[in-house]
Amino acid sequence: MTRTSSAPLRTPVAALLAVLLAASGVLLGAGGAQAAGYRYWSFWEADGKSWAYATQGPSLVRPDDGTVQGFRFAVSEDSADADRPRHAADFGAICADTPAKGGAKRVALVIDPGTAEDAPAGEKPPALRTACAQVAPDASSAEALASVAKPLRYDSSAMICAISGYPKSGCGEQVSGDGNKKDGSEKPSAPAPSSAPATDDGSGSGGGPSAGLLLGIGAILLLGIAAVLQARRRR
């Protein structure tokens, strides 16, 4: 008997593909919803007139006289997603009112507590400010910061938790979110230093679908293609 119409076959096949595509969309959406960031103070060094993410923590860096360094509080997934300080890295402008002195060095600091969107619940970020620290020639960046922005708070791994008492609590805690920045800051591409919060998903990235999730979606689509081919062979 000759089949006169393929409509009865096409309808189930189309329905199957629609279900598979919907399932893929749900899985991708779930992957995106799992994206998270960390709320912390990031440490920056001047690269000419621009900012570069520091590759060492401030307690390890011993800046030269005339150095400009920055601290920015924000929510970010990793160093590649971190927001730069929102002030120019200009030593001359920041230290203009602090004359050089024998037996001391000057370090210009930009302290940017970030925006209200990045603030912990119930807290309001203080205003961005600059300071010119005049410290001993062998002083670290952490010592320079402490000379102008006490009280500082650190965790057991020497990560800065608070500058000038902000925020009142917490330290590099994970927070939910999509990682999108709303203040237009340019984002760096430097690798994450040891002082940045580490992700705990083992994926090596700060968010987005994991390799396992993508493999699962691929398997679903392959099964769908196989079903379509089998249906065609039965015509």
Automatic annotation (TrEMBL):
Keyword Transmembrane helix attributed = yes
Q: Does the keyword Transmembrane helix apply?
A: yes
* Superkingdom of source: Bacteria
Give the matching InterPro entries. Answer: GPS-CTERM, SCO2322-like
Keyword line? Membrane, Signal, Transmembrane, Transmembrane helix
Coiled-coil spans in chain: none
Q: Region Disordered: what ranges?
A: 172-207
User: What residue intervals traverse the membrane?
Assistant: 211-229
- Quote the biased-composition stretches of kind Low complexity, using this chain's numbering: 188-198
Stretch forming the signal peptide: 1-35
Please identify the protein, giving its name as recorded: Secreted protein
